[in-house]
Every structure is written in C-alpha cells, then in structure tokens.
Amino acid sequence: MSSRRPRLLTISLAACAPAIGLAIAAMPAASAATHTGHPATGHLSALAKATIKARDYLRHLTVGQHGTDQRVPGHTRAINGLTQVHSTNWSGYADDNTRGNTYTSLTANWTEPTGTCTSTTSLAVFWVGIDGFSSGSVEQDGTLIECSGGRAFYFTWWEMFPTNSIQTVGSTVRPGDSIHASVVRSGTSYTLAVTDSTTSGNSFSTTQTCSSCANSSAEWIAEAPSNSSGVLPLTNFHSWTASSATVKSGSTSGVISTFADDELTMVDGSGLVKAQPGALNSSGNGFTVTWERST
Questions:
Q1: What is the tens place of the pLDDT at every residue in 170-186?
Q2: Strand 178-186 relative to strand 167-168: parallel, antiparallel, unpaired?
Q3: Residue 7 or 243, more confident
Q4: Where does 13-36+43-291 sit in CATH, by number?
Q5: Which of 10, 74, 153, 294 has the most CB atoms in a 10 Å sphere around its CB?
Q6: Which of 68-77, 159-168, 277-286 has the lowest mean pLDDT?
Q7: Alpha carbon of residue 249 to chain centroid
Q8: Rounded distance, CA 21 to CA 2, Å?
Q9: Radius of gyration of the chain (CA)
C-alpha cells in the first residue's frame, strides 16, 4: 500500500516536506473494476461483515507519507556499493537511478506471512513497484495484512499514482499462500499483476497508463501505511521473505544486486528499529525482513 517515496528520516523529522496522501478505494473481485458499494449486510455471516468493515477502513487511510531527503546525514554508510537508509515506513530494498537507470520490470515471490493481532488496529503491506524512492509517481502491487478487532484480514491490491488510488482485490488471501507479484512497463503502459497460486480468486492483472511516471527506481518493500495522524502501528508479521526477485533496466536484466541498491530499515522517531531487512542472499535476488516492534 504504499506508496510514494518512503517516509525517510532527515536529521529532524520536523524538517520533512509535506506528505503525499492517497485515499484507498476497494475492488470486490479480481477484475480491475472499481468498488461501487456493498450488498445488504443483513444476511451476511459475521466473518463477511467483518471483512467488509476491514475493507472499508482501508479506504480512509492515506499512505506513503514521506520526507524529501533520502539519506540520513551522519548515519549512512556504503557496503559493497550498498547504501543504507533509515525510513519511518519502509523496510526492504530499492534499486535507484544513481547510474542513470530507468526501470521496465521487476518481480518477486513470497509466502504470505502470518499476522499476529492485538486489540490495536495495525497494518503491514508487502509490495513490489517501479518508482517511489526518488519520485512522486508509483506503480505497485502486492498483499497486505490488516488487524482489526483482534482478527487478521488479508488482501491483494494494486496502485497507480497519481492516476488513481490503491485498489484492494482478493480478500481470501491466507498465511502460507504462494504469491508472485510483478510490474512490467512498455512505453507508457504498465501491467500490474499478482498471482496467488494457492487461492486463484485473489489473483489479478490490470494494465494502466502513465505518461509522466519517472521509472527511476525499483522496490521490494514491507511497509507500515499511514493515516492523517501519521504512520500506523505495524502488524506483527514475524518475517517476510522476498525471493527470486528480478529487475530490468534498459537492455540489462538482473537481480536486486545488479543495480545500485539501497537497504531500507524501518525505524521510529527515536531511531528504534521496527522492521529490519537482512542482507541480500548470495544470488542477490532475495532477503528477509524481520518485524521488531509495532510503533
């Protein structure tokens, strides 16, 4: 659910630029149709009603609030070409455009994590996307966990910004489902697709157009979304492992480590770690993010 550039820390959080917020719309099925309303709830099961309530909550969120400075002065260090970045809402990896790269596709696989809920509403979003790290455009898709009323709800979703808001799709994702997510660009056309090979009804593919998107980064991210009050509590997802990641820039096809990559650690306003990415694997195409705390 993310969204634009990560909410990245500067020396003072108060110095961050105004955030870009998105309202979240919902989709009832795996077509790309916009949600137009709910059926009468009188005859629905308690679970169906709870799912509708959870989905409605998503529409009132804004996500991807960010500052404009991507590096933390005095806190960054390069390791084998890797730049380490602190973010208040992103954890994972991003390939940037420090070498003039523009990106045309990326993919990743993951097994949907298990969300452990408390009475507090919390969310965790897992996605792949082009743009957002250093630009205001973003083209992305993935899965999310929402804890509401002590129960975990799981969705697939996609987003184009600024063309439209986030669209939730499948609502029957479950922990352990095998997920494949991709974003593929051809000129100004973007095909966003998520395949849940365990439960096919959560799968979708939609093609959207953006003539102003920068195509300046590629990301594999676990995120804590935001609302008007700031970053929301991060659902305890234990760990999320992105694997078999691919990415293409120009005529070069590779993996995360093929291009100039950035490791993003999610921290709170005091610098305490909320979600910690591990090192890239030996193939440079996968990593694990470990949950540390909700707030």
A1: 999 999 999 999 999 99
A2: unpaired
A3: 243
A4: 2.60.120.700
A5: 153
A6: 68-77
A7: 20
A8: 10
A9: 18
Q: Which of 5-14, 18-27, 203-212, 222-231 has the least mean pLDDT? A: 18-27
CA distances from 258 to 24, 63, 187, 218 (A): 33, 29, 22, 12
Question: Cβ distance 188 to 163 under 8 Å?
Answer: no
Record the pTM. 0.83
Q: What are phi and psi of 82, to 5 degrees?
A: -95, 130
Instruction: Provide the token pair at 280.
Output: 């890239």
Q: What is d(CA 93, CA 85) in angstroms, rounded to the nearest whole number? A: 10
**What residue segments make up the domains of the chain, in order of their start?**
13-36+43-291
pLDDT band at 70 (very low <50, low <70, confident <90, very high): very low
Task: Say whether the peptide bond before residue 175 is cis (omega within 30 degrees of 0).
Answer: no
Distances from the Cα of 91 to the Cαs of 204, 212, 253, 266, in angstroms?
25, 26, 24, 5
How many C-beta atoms lie closer than 10 Å to residue 45's C-beta?
9
